[in-house]
Design brief:
The chain is mostly helical. Helix content is 78%, strand content 0%. The protein is globular, with a radius of gyration of 20 Å.
Length: 336
């Protein structure tokens, strides 16, 4: 059966979405290949390749599938992040790292929203960038974007945030292990610092295990605790969206379906019923969906739109990153 016959066998909606979804899948595969061979974040390659192919998002056979990938695949990928976490993993950390993570996430996001307002942006932009910095980098940016209200600048803000947080996370992966050793932190304290500050999971793993196996284990566990904070922050974003919805307009659900699915998967994963192979497969599918989603967002964005963002958003994200690092070090100093 050739490709044209296979395509005609799909339902009408499937035939409409198929070309754009395949285009995002091709970009995902190419981004993964480049990341594995050159070491840069997969999300960053997906954004750049997606923007290079933005002509596909114009009116044509790929447009509908690109929109679908940027919205629905994003939500499915966020939901499947729940397969990375168990309640036992969080409990095993003890109260000190858990308290550190909760304080760091809440304070960083609060300060980011305030700083955004002082710099002339909407507070929701501070929530987006602060959430990406405080929780889990590009994945958090995409999840929060899905929960925030529609806005003509939202996709550009999301794209900028993903680019910024990916670049800063890569820089932190190189600099922070040297900083931890310069400060004289022991293996456990270094793991808490790296896991509590570096944005993306892959960079946390790379930085932690570059010091020692113990540091890598602790850093990974602390990072997973930050990922678990994604659910309450999504709920907070949904509450803000509902509060800003005008009278008479349809109000979004307090708990988006993908946030509910995330929580359910965490609970199911905590029972031990899900085999390790299924967990790994679900994690891989989640990563592929998120990469495809960011490729779709890149295809929908014009590069000239990013050039016009100016210096202030860059200063905001750099400031958030530095603030989080100083905050975590300060908490560790107070609670040795």
């Amino acid at each position: 059966m050739n490709a044209s016959l296979a395509l005609t066998g799909l339902p009408a909606q499937g035939r409409q979405l198929f070309p754009g979804v395949i285009a995002c899948g091709v970009v995902s595969a190419a981004s993964t290949f480049l990341s594995q061979h050159y070491g840069a974040p997969t999300m960053l390659f997906a954004l750049l390749l997606g923007m290079a192919m933005n002509f596909l998002s114009a009116e044509g056979p790929c447009a509908a599938g690109i929109v679908f990938s940027a919205r629905e695949l994003l939500r499915i990928g966020v939901a499947q992040l729940g397969l990375k976490i168990t309640i036992a993993q969080v409990a095993a950390l003890g109260w000190h790292p858990v308290a550190l993570v909760v304080i760091a996430v809440v304070v960083t996001i609060s300060v980011s929203m305030l700083a955004a307002r002082l710099m002339g942006f909407q507070a929701l932009f501070g929530l987006l960038t602060g959430g990406a910095t405080a929780i889990c980098g590009a994945s958090a940016a995409l999840a929060l974007s899905a929960a925030l209200p529609a806005h003509e600048q939202k996709e550009r803000a999301t794209l900028f945030t993903v680019i910024g947080v990916s670049a800063l996370s890569t820089l932190a992966m190189i600099v922070y292990p040297m900083l931890a050793q310069w400060l004289g932190l022991d293996m456990h304290a270094s793991g808490v610092f790296l896991g509590g500050t570096i944005h993306d999971v892959a960079q946390v793993v790379g930085a932690g295990y570059s010091i020692s196996h113990e540091t890598g284990d602790v850093a990974t566990m602390v990072k997973l605790m930050r990922v678990a904070m994604l659910l309450p922050v999504i709920v907070f974003a949904a509450m803000l969206t509902r509060a800003r919805t005008g009278p008479g307009a349809a109000r979004p659900p307090l708990l988006p379906w993908f946030a509910v699915a995330f929580a359910v998967l965490v609970v199911i994963n905590s029972t031990g019923w899900i085999p390790k192979g299924v967990q790994d497969f679900g994690s891989d599918v989640s990563r592929w969906f998120l990469v495809a989603a960011i490729a779709g967002i890149g295809m929908k964005t014009q590069l000239r739109e990013l050039v016009t963002v100016g210096l202030k958003p860059i200063l905001l994200m750099v400031g958030e990153t530095v603030f989080l690092a100083l905050l975590v070090l300060g908490i560790q100093h107070v609670w040795p």
